[in-house]
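Why show two proteins at once? Because comparison is the fastest way to build intuition. When a single record is shown, students tend to memorize it. When two are placed side by side, the eye starts asking what differs. So, the first record is below.
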Amino acid sequence: MIAEDLPKRLLSDAALVLKKIAEALLPALEKISTVITPKRILVAGSVLAAILFFAFVYIRATSEAPPLASFEKARLSLSQARHAEAWIYAPGLLQEAEASWAQAGVQWEQESQKWRHQRRFRKALIATIKTARLADSAATVAFVTKDSLQWLAATGISLVKEKIETLRAQFENLPVQSQLRSRFFQGELAILESELAFRREDYVHAVVCYHQAAERVGSAGDEATKILRTYLANIPKWQKWAAETIAWSKAQQDIAIIVDKIAARSQVYKAGELLVEFPIELGPRWVGHKKLRGDKATPEGRYHVTKRKERERTGYYKALEINYPNDEDKLGFREAVARGELPRTAHIGGLIEIHGEGGKGANWTAGCVALRNDHMDEVYKLAKIGTPVTIVGSLKGLPALEETFQNLRKHTNGHTQR
């Protein structure tokens, strides 16, 4: 735009100067027009040429050249800032730089509309210098921020994925409330979205999703920890039950059975000594004591075998029915109904057994204790009517699980009448 206007502006300036010179010389020329001679014409021409030369020199000396180099530097700086994705990682600086660039263009255009000797590009020059400075800063900040976010996202994704895997491994057999399970699942989805954003180099979104995953998994872990801590506070009571059962076995020189729900083990004692130990499967909602019929929870308490079943008497290969609900269970059920913790239409349930058909690799019963058929054969041979069966939540607790939750917080988880 400036290069195209230059010849036209120079001609206009020269015409203006010639006009003013002509107006100044016109009276003198009128006086000497009657006595024109060749010599006087030559002198007048020389004077006129000198005047034109000095007028041209004056115009060039008093006009300013447009700051082309400064404009080019500002343009390149803006291009580099955009290439560095400053609109993502340094949007404020880039906006300031672009505003300054627009102002420089306005100042350039305004000065270009003036006579050449009247042009002053100082404001445009200052605007281009400011543009280059802001654009360079935006590019630098964008580069550093992007690099930092990339490292943060990579580290955070790795950490949360590790915690999710640890938490899943620890809880694969622990029943968790549906809302906590849903929150944990949302955390898994968030970390997947974070990984996808990382792969497309959208590190801002990757970090946002990583924080969401950490918060959801962590909060689910916190609540699960609270529930489990309350549950495991009964360990002293359960250990007392187990000790009394083993002592009975020793005193009577007889068989006694202890079921540890968290360990998922059934222990058979003879004369106070551990004889055999087998893996078990329980009801899917086995954490906590059985409250009512249909809750698919395995009861906790001190019971004894009331029936031995096999063949057509049971649908589970062989079975040892126990005396659930006992008097303590019935009293607790009535008190829970009276307090409003259970509906008045609820039933306490019954028909809890140690039976076969286990080995499915999951907690699937309606509240019973399931063993593999070959293990059930051994237990069935040893047990008789009256054999004590003590069912506890845990005898040792979950130290590994507690440690997992603490680390996660730092960043920053059958039968119709059961």
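Second record. Ask yourself what differs from the first in the token line.
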Amino acid sequence: MNRLSKIALLVVMLLLVATPAFAQETGAAPAASYSVLAGAAFGAGLIIIGAGYGIGKIGSCAVESMARQPEVANNIQTAMIISAALIEGATFFALIVCIAK
């Protein structure tokens, strides 16, 4: 099975699984929408806390590494910035998933 046919099969399977989601009724109870919003707010808060902890841990470990080996400070700083950017990208993606209804 070549790559194109595998991708086509995956798309067909995804559409078959997603069909019940397309058939969802548009009217929802107000209480249900409030619980969804509360869950999204709670999830967004957890995401921000996790990202803050991760970036803080990267920063503290990078500064400690630079203090121990000053000759490789530029390499450590570059790796730290790349890691922090990847964490921020994952955080923004997770926030959009939480906020999107």
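One difference worth noting in the second protein: The chain is about 85% helix and 0% strand.
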